[in-house]
Amino acid sequence: xxxKLIGQKxxxxxxxxxxxxxxxxxxxxxxIPFVRIGLRSIRYDMEQxxxxxxxxxxxxxxxxxx
Length: 66
What we know:
This protein has one domain. It is built from 3 helices and 3 strands. A hairpin with a 3-residue loop joins strand 2 and strand 3. The chain starts with a strand and ends in a 10-residue tail after the last helix. The mean pLDDT is 92.
């Protein structure tokens, strides 16, 4: 299986967030998924980021009160 891994800058651009926001999310144990390679290298898996976006997407459902 081939994974598309991107760096922090690319992930921040993809999510329209600052790099500092991604760093804070990691430090506080947030829910934006990342991959740690070795002691210091952080990467983001594009498929996991897409799944994260899907989970966070708010959908308004129409309720029929008939």
